[in-house]
Structures are given as structure tokens and as C-alpha cells.
Amino acid sequence: MVAAGIAGAACKRPRETIVSIADGVQDVVTSRVASAIATDGYADGVSISLRGIRPIKIDGNPRHPITGRSSDPFVQARLWDLYDPARSEGARMDGAQCTAAAFAAGLREALERSPATFRILTGTVTSPTLVTQLTELERRGARWHVWEPCARESMFEATRRSLGRELDVSVSLANARRVLALDADFLAEGPGRLRLCRELGERRREIRLVHAGPSGATVTAIAADHHLPMRPSEVGRLAWWIAGELGLVARSAEPMNGARAVLEDLDVVVAGPRQPAWVHALALGIGQRFGRLVVRTPLEARRPGLEPLVDAMRAGQVDTLLVLDANPSYSAPRALRFDEAASNVTLLAHVGLHADETAGLARWHAPLATPFEAWSDLRAEDGTVSIVQPPVAPLGDAVALHELVGEMLGDRRRAFEIVRSQWSGLDDDAWRAALETGVVDGTEAPAVVLPAPDLGWVEPAATSSELEAVHVADARVRDGRFAHNGWLLELPKPASTTTWGNAIRIAPQLARRLGATDGSMLTVSAGDQALTGPAWIDPEQAEGTVLLELGYGHRAGSLLATGLGYDAGALRPGDVRVERASGVASLHVVQREHRLDAVPKAPPPIRVHDGPVTPAAKETPSHETLYAGSRNLAPIDRGWAMVIDLSTCIGCSACTLACTTENNVPVVGPEQIDLGRVMHWIRVDFDRSEDGDLHPQPVPCMHCEKAPCEVVCPVNATTHSESGLNEMTYNRCVGTRYCSNNCPYKVRRFNYLAYSEAETARVPAIVDQRNPAVTVRSRGVMEKCTYCVQRLPRVPGSAPTMTACQQACPTRAIHFGALEDPLADVAALRDEPHHYELLGELGTRPRTTYLGRIRNRNPGLVG
Amino acid sequence: MSTLVASDHDFRTVTLEVSREPLRTHGSIAWRLALAVSGSLVVLFVVSVLWLFTHGVGVFGTQMPVAWAIPITNFVWWIGIGHAGTFISAFLLLMRQSWRNAVNRIAEAMTLFAVLCAGMFPVLHLGRPQLLYFLLPYPNSMGLWPQFRSPLTWDIFAVGTYGTVSLLFWYLGLVPDLATLRDRARTVWKRRVYGLLALGWRGQDRHWHHYKIAYGLIAGLATPLVISVHSVVGLDFAVAMVPGWHDTVVPPTFVLGALFSGFAMVLTLVVPLRAGMHLEDLITLRHVANLAKLLLLTGLLVALCYGVELFVHLYEKDPHLKVTGFHQALGERAPLFAVMVLTNVLLPQLVWLRRVRESPWSLFALSIAVNVGMWLERYLIVVGSLERDYLQSSWRTFHPTLWDATTFLGSLGVFAFGFLLFARFVPVVPMHEMRELVDVHPSRRARREPSRAWTASGYGVVAEYRDPERVVAAVTALHAARHGRPEVYSPLPIEGLEEEQHRPKSRIPWLVLGGALAGAFTGFALQAYPNVWGFPLDVGGRPDFSWPSFVPITFECAVLFGSCAAFFGFLLACGLPRLVHPIFDAPGSEDVTTDRILVCVRGASPSAAPILAEHGADRIGGEPC
């Protein structure tokens, strides 16, 4: 259906003109469009690559002040939404198919009949146009509620109570030296995550990053120089103690050994959204002291939340509830009993991408258009507005949100016109410039000066001594909003490298007590509520915590999401009991062995340095040969090379997903993952050193000068190019797989089954996403990283170029270029003292090399 | 020590006993039952292969990092089994071990079917088996050739040569026996089929002369071939840099393991066969005991290799090798390793006991155990090494699938099916070679009356003899009387005859030398041309002229061309195939392939008959003397 939609309806450009980025690379076939997509309501400035009119790739918009060129898995994977076969296909009213216009007209009628009992529920909204429209609805009597499952409510509450008004507080790492993350995964979540990643990457060696929190398996914990396993409640004690030491509150006893080391030179404190308001208030106080905070008036619409709505529903004050792009039936706290309250609502109408749980509950449902199909606008973290430009017209009956709300307001204009009139202040040239650059000039919100916060109300809560269940947003599907996304489901999660589902994450002490190993089924119960799921043991998890990953166990929606994993929402956070349940389940793990010292006395795959590396430490593996006539014996000083800086790599896996979408890497599903047949061309290894620290390492093809794979191929299907690439000739490959056996890095991937065809069968429209510059591999063919050969100029260094992984990397850890190119930094990086070749002792002479991981350790926190 | 043939056998009884089965109209119930069982396994094999071809090689458990698993294990196992046949036949012939005569045909047939099974697995495990021909060197429009540095390309030449040479060797040895069946067959169809396959062999002294030279030369070529082929299979692993594979001891270990498993499989086949076909007086306890001794010897050598390998793995400072060695011997794979040590090292020591050595069925049980153990050994090498690669992040345990099992079981069926057909329609013991071992020379039984009279049609005077010694004397006398070189037709090469016949030296050896040199040149040129001039490619930074990599194929081509030269040289020298020959009309000629000897003096030569009669001819021109 969706494929047919693409072929038919979508292949018309909307009449409204979109403007492509004029940077000299576009032609009739290839162009890029600056736009924005919302992640948790805030804009990520993106550039959408088009072939013809088909969007085939998303990357960060280099001109966007927050996003820059980089992205993360959530940005990279978003194109799936457009091509998703599980997308809701048509509007319906009381079970009967209807048109979007009838749907909107019906809502308008309901609004006009009784505006006071008409309520709207949305997620976080930053779109100025939508705010204008919904405010107009409010003016006509409707009430608007905003609710986000993993929102930053604590922060707003803290500012409200300490400063008297709600403020949006973020930090800047631009000059930071010592950063303390209080149960915060600021590198992977939140509106400013890509900016913070960039700021961290730029000055990684000057920053000491300490993470205190229950989980060692978050991007921030992995990126940190120190991870301090701590219950969420203990994190508050630490903040309280620090504030006490700074004279902000009463002094308290040191909450842990080495706390004083944390305090040393501290200049940035980030509190996570899971932390209560009082911890945020302390972070505010500490941050204000050091002056690294950036404070703005809230950019998102602040409205009453879900609780007052449910109360009103229960009290029978709601006749019509319109849920816009939210799924409260699944993700609302169970204690609120949303579904039960919904039965009091005469008309529940839902607009969303999928026929999800709320759609099932609703009498009326309409499919929502993705940001690739409908005009809109969005604000980024700093207020910068980006116009959402749709490269394709809505597929099927997908509804543009602005048109729907406009219809309810009696405004029959198209979304383009609604958005254009919102920005009527821009003349045509300015509008065109805004579309071309992806940024509306001068929309950045000014920072406000932060007065000293009042911490008088702050009182530390008692720490729990019981087993404490903590809800964590899943590293891949977040609160469940991406549970339909095959790319994200198959992307190995940080640290655990599990895929396709969630686990009950426990600390080693609890695992020992239960006799549980990875995959053992556990039952977590509190009162009469219980849930069952497989265990995953995080060696760096805080003792006494049970982490429940949100976002799975869907009852409706996408075929991929339904029935996958357990629903963590079934249990409220707090004290729980954990027991072994019968059986073992597969976690669909990609990497089985994490110990760096699993091969004793061998040079470890990741070189870890504490403190600066002296030039004397430089490794120069000898490349002796008995084969005097060998080619490629000269020093590697020409051709392509990649250097991956392990100091700046944070293990977010953006590279893997960028590579997947760029190179048509198929999704193979959990059964094939269990068989060890993941297809990712660049994987991220998470290796644990003896001191317990986890180190991420992206591993693409090494493009060895003396490639072991080439010598053993019997049919010349993999050979060497003059510019140093190790090339695969797919149509020559017969599939002996000898090359993979002989690859010491195991970066080769084999089409054991017809994976691409299978993917096309399940996700027909994905053929429109496939990059036509990259061959789709057939069954029985070996494949691997090509250094994105389709992007490279024939002569190395003759044109600026970036591989997909390099472009996506949010911390700029991946460097790539021609060694003879003075503008590329790879040649210089290869001379760094901490530069090394992975398994260089084998004499493969790799072109992909690494900079060792330099940690900025505090001696007071070691041991 | 018991004798090699029961003492009451003569030419005729040996012939009758062996040719009984092929000339039967219907197979026995046991044979049909066995055929049905193996036939159903063949069906299983076909189903598995169809499933494999429709779904892809992913139906097997292969994965990353274990990209080679059960199919390759099966390949190495089968090719190993295929090595004992030619080794027994060729090497023991060169060593003049006459006991081989009773078992070499069985061993060679085993080789052929084992090589067939072995050859299928690398094809089945390919991602795109339909493109197998990419591995063959054939001129194509793209000017692209196989990659001759890859051991897999060497494999194609090695296994191809081995299969071809084994077939030629087997067939050459079979030709005189096929002639016997032709002459003894009672039905027209059997006579025609065996007759066609016998190529018109008439047991002439010229035939035997060239036969022995060609057979000996192929044996001489096949012996190093056996060593080279499994060395090349070993190089598939030794050339790769996988810890546990990259080891100089791998090729010899593979050769010895191949012989070990091959001897075991010969025992597995010989013991039930001699019982089922009542061949106990031709394949005696001494044969079985000799095979058992070879099994013990190769078992000890294999044990030595294990020791060396284990020592290297654990003593070597390469940490990766240590990890792999530990994984295979003491870690996750320790149970399999323990079974392997039990079956391959400990159990064969029972052969030291005479009681075991002379009990065929105990040896049968032992041979099954060794077969299992050798499969496990290959599994441990192939899978156990890949499971622990250089980067620990890639480590993964392999699990076979149902289709892995059915394909292997199916291949056992293919093997058994082929072997059962062989046992039914081909003389399982070489009759002509057994005749050489018979103590009582002339047939005791009086000759039956000739069915028809000899019509010489001017071909010559024919005398019939029973005693080879008299034939030699008669030939000497004929030469003395200047009657030219008489033609002698006999069921076996007659000792001392060639010295009297004053035949010019055979040119087959020169032909074989020429063939081998041409093969070597062709093989080398085939590799050097595309790599240096035709289509040089940068392959792993290796030099264009990588001559050490070109050695295996050069050698295989030499053996292939040399063996073909021997076989076709034999045909040329003998004037075969020639299905019609005047001598076939001579009375008693149908017994030439059983127990009679004819001496023919060409032309109308009245003075020859008295000389022939004088030297004890039974009949001359069809008339009793």
C-alpha cells in the first residue's frame, strides 16, 4: 500500500515550492533539502538527501546552530517513519472509513457544540504555528494539555519554586573543565544533546566527565572518565553534599569515598530528568555559582499536564478529547488509569502515525503526516526556528496537523499557507533563505540572567534501602515512540549490545543472589503488580537498583513493536521484589565477550591511557616480509585513510545507523541476530578493561594494505584499488566466505539468506529509501564497509568528502580523508603518539587506525 | 600367519566366486534392504539440497565468525576417507604388498564415492553455487581468471585431479575383470554392457605388458598425489591466519588423519562386505589384521600430531593461539575433544591385542568409533578455531541446524547407495590380481567341450594351454623356429613370457613424462600469464609473480596430464578400444579371461602346429591333441 502510495500520489511535488540546499552538489537527480524533525518536541535541524523526490538519507544540517552536521541514531533512523509499512493508512470514525476532511469537520462540530468540554492532548510542542493554532482553539474555549512521558518536568518545577517562574535551563560545555552528570544521559537525550556532544568532542581532553547514576550502560556513563554507580536517591545526596560544601545549603556528611575528588574544580553539573525537582534546584544553585548555565524562558508550550486531564475525564468534564501525536493509553503512568477514565469521554479522537493503543481506544482515528510530508515549523533548544519542508506529498490519507487544526478553526488553507502566514514577517527572499539554510534568522531566544535561586525549600529525600525499580527510557525506542522502527530495534544498545527487545537490568550483586545470568527470566513485583522479562547484568549498575526499560510490550501499533519485550509501564517505579521466573530468553546479543583481557598478554584491541601520552609511546609495528616483490610495502602516505579517536567516541552508534541507511544495509531480525548474522558494516564494540571501565570502539573495514581477505578469495571478488581501498566486486562473489574467516577484524558480512528481498517483502516502501548509488546485495554475497566509495572522488583528495559514519558522528570522533590532502587531518593524526593499528602486530597494515582512549582520570576516584 | 588365499582355490574358483554377484539376475534380500535404506537417505539428501537451494546457505548454522562449519567439516572428512583407497592401491602396489590385491578394488571404489561426496560439500556451502564455474579457469570476455593464490583454487585442481586420476586408476584395473564378466555373462545385455566397458580387452600379452607399465606409472603418480591433495586441503586452513589454523603441522596432520580415517572406513566396509558376500577365503583374517595394523600405525602418527599441535598451542607465546588451543582442548569444546582423544588415540591401541586384531567385528566397531572421532577432529579444527578469533568481541559459539544434520546424513546415503551398486555390479575383488596369488596354477577342472568349431579365416593357428610354464616354453620354441612373435592370450600376465617375446621397449613412460611436463608447464603458464601479463590485480599486496603460490596447481596439473597420458597411452599401445577381433571367434577364447591360455601363430603356418603340440597344448585349432 505504502509502496503504491509512493509510486502514485507521492511522486508529485507539492505545489508549494521547496528549496534545496545550494552547495554545488545537487543536480536533477541528487539534491538536499534543509528541514527539521522533532525529537521530544524540539527541532533537530536536518538535511534530507533526495534522489529525484525520494528522501533517502537524513543528516544534520551543517548550518543549524544546535545540530550542526552531526546526528544520532534517532535522527538517522527517522526516515523509517515515512516508509514504515505499519503506518496507519486511513481515517476512520466509529469504525467506518472516512476522509480527513470529514474527520476534521466532525471535530469542528464537536468543538462548536461544546467548546468547554473539548480538550486536546499533545506531546511537547515547540512549533510556533501549532502554538498559534492551538492557542486560538483555547481562545474558543477548548483546553490544551501537554504531556510527555520522559519530560523535563522536574527542571521546570525547580525553577518555578526557586526562581518564581519556569525557566529552561541548559548547560554549555564550551569552556567547561569538570563536568558532573547527576543521573543524566545528556549526550543521548534532551533537546541539546547534539550540541553537547559536539562541545564535548571538541575539547574532550580538557574535560573530565564524571557520571553518577544507577546505570553504567548509558552513552554518558560510557563516555565518562568515571562512572560512579549510585541509586537515583543517592545521586541526590551527592548533590546535597556538594551544595553544602559550596555553602548553598547546610553541610552534610560525605556521601561516598572520593566525593571530594568529584568536587575538585567542578564547574558544570547536569541533573537528569529522572531526578526530583529538589536535585534540579541544587544543580541550579551549583550551576549558578559556576556560571556555565544557559537559561531561557521556556520555548515549549507550557500547559497543564495529564493528571488534571485525567481528573477532568473522570469527573465527566470532558466530552471530546483530541489526542495529537501521543499515545497515553500505552505510556501514561498506570496509576492514572487513563483507559478507565477515557470511558467517560464521549468522543476520543486520535491522530498519530500508527494505529496504536490509544487509537484502539479512540472512536475516531486519523493518520498523521510525517515531517517529510507536511509543512510545519519547529524550534530548537536555543529557540532557533527551522521550517519543516516536505519533499513529498502526504502518503495515503495522512493528515497534516496544521490543516487539521486549521479545519477545526474554520481555516481551510493548506499547511504551507498556514506556516507561511505564521512567518508573514519574512519577505519572499528571507523566506527563501530560511528554507535554503534551514534556519529562520534571528529567532534564537535570548538567554536570561539567572538570579541566585532560592534553595530554602529544598529538603533531601531519604535514600531507599530496598530494591528500587527505576524506569529508564530505552536507548533505542525511548518511551516507545520508536518501537516501530526496524533500524533502531536492530541497532545494538550501548554496553549490552542487545537488540530487539528490552531487559530487566540488574546489578551483579542481585544477579548472584538470584543465581541469574544474562537472559534468565525474572519477575519484578510490587504489590499486586508484576512483570516478567529477561535479565541483563550490568557490571557497573548501582547495587539495589532494578532498571526497567520503557518502550516495549506494545499491545497495538506496528507489527514489529507488538508483543516485543515487556511493558515496563506496568510497574510503577519504587520498591520492588525480584524473583527468578522459569526459563531463559534470548536478548539477541550481538557482542558476547566484552573483556579486553579475554586474550591475556595480547595487545588489547583498545589502548587506554590515563593522562597524556608521550611521543615515545608511539607504536610502530614492523612490517617485515619475506616476499621481496610485494606491492604496498611503502609507508602508507597516499590514498584514503580513516582515523577513529577513541577518546571522543561515546558509543552512541550513530555511525552504524548512518551507514545502514547510506549503504542499504538490510534489517535481518532477531532470529538472524541470534544466529550471529547482523549485517552492520560498522559495528561498535564495547570492551571492558580490567578496571571495569567500558570502552566503545567503532570497527569498520580496516582496508588493509596487505589484506588477508584478498589473498584467499578464489575468484578475485575482493581486490585492492590504487587509492588503497579494499574493494568488493559483488557480482563476482560466489560466497565461499573464506575472506571472512581470514579477516582478523571480522568486519565482513554475508548474505546468508535473501536479506534485502526479505526486507523488501516486509517493508515494501524501503526500496524507495535505498540509495541508488549503492548496489543492493543479493543472497549468497559477501559485503562490507567500502569507505562509502560512492561518495569518493576518483582521485583521493581532489574533492571534499565525508563517509556516512564520519558525517553522522556527533562528537567528530571519525576522521577520514586522503593522506595526500593537506586539508584532511588524517595524515597528522597518524603521527600522534597514541595512534595505533588494531592488531597491527599481524602485519595487515590497516588504513583504518585508532587514537587510543585517553581518559582524564581523577586519582582520587580511582580504586 | 594365514595365507592370502585359501589353498583350495584356482583360477576358475576365484573367478567364479567373485563374478557370482555381478552375474546374478537379482540382488539378495539384504542387498535390496540396504539399498532401500540408503536410497531413502539419498532422498533426504535431495530434499535437503533443494531446501538449501531455494532458501540459501543460511539454512545451515554458519554465521559470523564461524563462516565455515558443518559442510566444510564434512568436506574434509569425506576427502580424508577418500585418501586411503588410492593409497592402499597405489602405495602398497609400489611397495609390492601383494595382500593389497584383495582389498584395493573396495578401497578404490570407496575413494570414488567419498570424493564424490566430498566434492559436493564445498559447492553446497557456497553462497551462490550456480556460479561455481567462476572458480574454473576458462577464457571469458572479461579476461578474468580465478585467483591462483587462494588455496580454494588449489582445491579445485587438487580434488579435480584426484577424482580424475582415481577414476582412471580404478577403471584401468577394472578392465581385465570387465572382460571376464563379458565372457561369463549369460544375458545379452550384461554381455553388451560389460563388453563395451571392457573396451575389447582380450588378455593379449601385449595388453598385459602395457597394462602393467601404465598401471605402475599411474600408481607412481597417484602416491604423491594422495599426499599433495590432503596437504592442499590442509593448506586451506594453514594458509589462513586464523589462530588454530595457521600452523605448519596442519598439512601433515591432515594427510595422516586422512589415511587414518580412510583405513577406518575401509574396515567399516570390508568387514560387513566379506561376511555378506561370503568372501572370507579371499579377504582373509590376515587382510583384516593388516588393515588394522595400518590403522594403528596411522593412529599413532595422528596422536603424535595432536601432541605436537597441543604443545605448540600451549607453549607458543602467541596469546591468540593459546586461547584457541585452550578453547578447543580444555574450554567450551573440551567434551568433544575428550571423545576425540578416546576414539582416535586410546581405542586404536586395542589393536595391539591379537584377539582384537583378528576379530573382524571388534575392528568394525573400532572403525566406526574412529570415523566418528575423525569427524569430531575436523569439526574442532574448523569450528573450534573460528569460534575464538583475534578480537574477543567477535567470539561466538556455533550451533548446527537440522539441515546441517540432514545434509550430512544424506551424504552418507549417497555414499552407501553408490557403494552398494558397486558391490552388486562390479567385481569387488580384482580377479586378475587374485589369480596371481593362487597356488595351484592350472585349473584342475577339465575343459568343457567347445561350443563351435574354430574357423581360422586365415588369422592364425591357435593352441590352447592350461599351464603358463608350457606357454613360455612353446613361445621360446616358436621364436627359435623363426615363427615370429606369437600372440599369447591369458587371464593374467605370464611370468617370464615378456623376456622371450623380445618386444621393443614401451614408449608409455616417455609419453607420461612428456604429459607430466606439459601439464606442469600448462599449470604454471595458466597462473603466471593472467597474474603477470593478462590481468594483473593488486591482491593483498602480493607480487604479481607469486611463484610459491603457483606450485600446488603446477604439481596437480603435472599429475593430471601424466596420468591421462598413461591411460590413453595404454589404450593407444594396445589398440583399444577394439570390440571386434578375430581371436574372439577362436574356440576357447571365452575362457581366456578365466583360466585358459591361447597361443596364436599368425598366418597359415603349417609348421607351427607341431611345435605347439610338442609343448603340451591341450587343443590346436579346436581339436584335441
Could you describe the 3D structure shown?
The complex is a heterodimer of chains A (863) and B (625). By secondary structure, chain A is of the alpha/beta class. Chain A is 24% helix and 20% strand. In chain A, helix 6 crosses helix 11. Chain B is mainly alpha-helical. Chain B has 20 helices and five strands. The longest helix of chain B has 34 residues. The two termini of chain B are 43 Å apart. Chains A and B meet through strand 28, helix 23, helix 24 and strand 32 of A and helix 5 and helix 10 of B.
Describe the global form of chain A: globular
**Fraction of residues of chain B in helices?**
55-70%
Instruction: Name the quaternary structure.
Output: heterodimer
The coarse silhouette of chain B is globular
Mean pLDDT of chain B, rounded to whole units?
90
Please bin the fraction of helical residues of chain A: 10-25%
Beta-strand fraction estimate of chain B: under 5%
Give the biggest sheet of chain B: 5 strands, antiparallel
Q: Are there runs of chain B of 5+ residues with pLDDT below 50, and where? A: 448-455
End-to-end Cα distance of chain B: 43 Å
Give the class of chain A from helix and strand content and strand pairing: alpha/beta
User: Largest interface, by Cβ-Cβ below 8 angstroms: which chains and how many residues each?
Assistant: A-B, 76 and 62 residues
CA-atom Rg of chain A in angstroms: 27 Å
How many helices of chain B? The count is 20
Number of strands of chain B: 5
Report low-confidence residues of chain A grouped into runs of 5 or more. Answer: 1-14
As a percent range, the share of strand residues of chain A is: 15-25%
How far is the first residue's CA from the last residue's CA of chain A?
59 Å
